[in-house]
Amino acid sequence: MKSNVSRHLIYGLAASVLILAANSITANAATAYKEVAVKDGGMVTGKLTFEGAVPDDAVEKILITKNPDVCGTGEREIVWIDVKDGALRGAFVFIDKIAEGKPWTEPEGGFLIDQKDCRFRPWAQVIKRGPITIRNSDTGVLHNINTREMIGVEKGRIARRTMFNFGQPDPGDITENLKPRRSPFISINCEAHNFMFGFMLAPKHPYAVVVNEDGTYEIGDLPPGDYVLKAWHPNLGVQKVSITVPSGGTVQSDFAFSK
Question: Which of 65, 72, 84, 232 falls between 20 and 30 A from 203, CA-CA?
Answer without folding.
Answer: 84
